[in-house]
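User: Could you walk me through two proteins back to back? I'd like the raw sequence and the structure tokens for each, with a short line separating them so I can tell where one ends and the next begins.

Assistant: Of course. Protein one, sequence then structure:
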Amino acid sequence: MLRLPPFRYVAAASVSEAVANLQAQPAAMVVSGGTDLYANMKQRLFTPPLLIGLRSIGGLRGIAYNEMTGLTLGALTTLTDIATSDVVRTYYPALAEAALLISTPQLRNMGTIGGNLCLDTRCNYYNQNLDWRKALGYCMKKDGDICRVAPSSPKCVAANSSDTAPVLQAYGGRIRLAGPNGEREVPLAEFYRNDGIDAWSKQRDEILTLVAVPPPAPGTRSAYRKLRLRNSFDFPIFGVAAVIERDRTGVCSAARIVINAVGSKPVEVTRASDVLVGKKLTADLLDAAAEAAFGAGKPLDNTSGSIPYRKRMARVFTRRALEACA
């Protein structure tokens, strides 16, 4: 049985108190649901001496929608609340789909939107117990100096496995970060970095507090499709979010297609969007856009499923998401 390492837990009463604790203890980490962090701690991927609990900060929960400003989600809003929200299901159905496809009901009851957006990047050579990694010789993401997936790579290629990240990026979402210098907002498209170790443009002493999504334009359709080996609870080995706007004549006026689990950050496939904009969504057009996503998806041997299989499924699942929108 894997056990948690020793640590001290402090429940923060406010965001400012949590930030102050992060400043005072450089090795500290924040936790809310803990569905990913505690598992990683058991594998000794993280051994923080102090965990700063955020669950007692009531102001970080809630779902609100305004036709002028759009959707706001408190960072501690659970994935279950998002998946079952009438507001989210009505105006942002792809987000509800993505939240519903994360893990199991029990973990969705605990897991939060903030935690899923800050999900640690994953890799077959990294997400293993200490004895396994020690026998192999470690990797650069933890204790080693070489990427086991791509030995010649100067950086880690662990994959982003968040289901909500590509969806919120496709919707044009932004996040709010609170730190010692106050608050700032960052577009989701700029929040992630293509580096499995330094994966976010978030400072160590900053905390994600809010997610904001603009209101959907009239005629907007959206969908999320997820490939995983075990449909009951697995992380994605390919994910695709599509958000498409159509005018009254049925012509596509705007489109965003974002794929995930093929790199250290979600990837917007602008070539696929360019194929669709200005045209009616015929079957041949959807095929062409799916082919563009196939070309952009470059999976590595860092998660379940073979590279050729995941590569082929990029075309299949993008086509399915686009068909759902059309």
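----
Protein two, same layout:
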Amino acid sequence: MKELAEACRKEGIALGFYHSTVIGTTPISVTSPGGTVKRETSNLNRYTEYLKDQSVEIIKKYGPLLVMWYDVLNNSIQ
């Protein structure tokens, strides 16, 4: 991300990032990729804080950004 952000700044190109919110690699996430496996235990409040922290880090380290685009959780996940 760092190299891409630096190259975009150098060339005057607007930068944006995609951030998937449905990831299965963190134990605090709600589900696995694609929503095929629900976790028996999850902490949505903690995951929300994790996502906010990640977003702030990306914006501070690599901004300014034209866009920050997020996936959303599958509405079938309860």
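Residues 2-70 form one domain.

Let me know if you want the two compared in more detail.
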